[in-house]
Amino acid sequence: MDTPEATALVLAVGYQESRFAARRQWPKGPARGFWQFEVSGGPRGVIGHEATRDHLKRAWLSLAYRDVLTPFALQEAIAHNDTLAFVCARLLLWTLPERLPTRDEPKRGLAQYLRAWRPGKPHPETWDDAWRIGWKTA
């Protein structure tokens, strides 16, 4: 799971979603973590998906969480645990059936972000900046 493409896309999505400035959706929204997960989206998706469930359980336990892993518990944890939030973002991308985009495929990156996150108010006009920052930081 640890590839330059994965890291760059996860970072691009985090920048797109929150600019890495807000762990709680402003002003009173339900999303949590830099990747702005809503309980019915990312948390439910990675817990319920056959390809990600066991990876997530291992991460949950390795980070010393002892609560039962539910979408609600996960959403609350990612509000303050950036490592767990990053793991969830990577796992959400893991649920997509296609290969991850390379540096020269920002439109493919945007398409995968939109499919995985299903943002209510997407801003495709800011994606190119997020994409550049993701690749520069990866």
Q: Rg from C-alpha positions?
A: 14 Å
Oligomeric state: single chain
| Secondary-structure-derived class | mainly alpha
Order of helices and strands: HHHHHHH
Number of strands: 0
- How does the major sheet shape up? none
Mean pLDDT: 96
Silhouette = globular
Structural domain tally: 1
Distance between the termini: 14 Å
How many helices? 7
Q: Segments where pLDDT lies below 50 for 5+ residues? A: none
SSE layout and pairing:
Blueprint: H1 4-18, H2 42-48, H3 53-62, H4 71-78, H5 82-94, H6 106-117, H7 127-137
Helix pairs in contact: 1-5, 1-7, 2-5, 3-5
How would you characterize this protein structure?
There is one protein chain. The chain has seven helices and no strands. With 138 residues, it is an all-alpha fold. The chain is globular, with a radius of gyration of 14 Å. The two termini are 14 Å apart. The mean pLDDT is 96.
Give the key terms:
single chain, 138 residues, globular, mainly alpha
Please give a quick description of this structure.
The protein has 138 residues and is mainly α. Helices cover 55% and strands 0% of the residues.
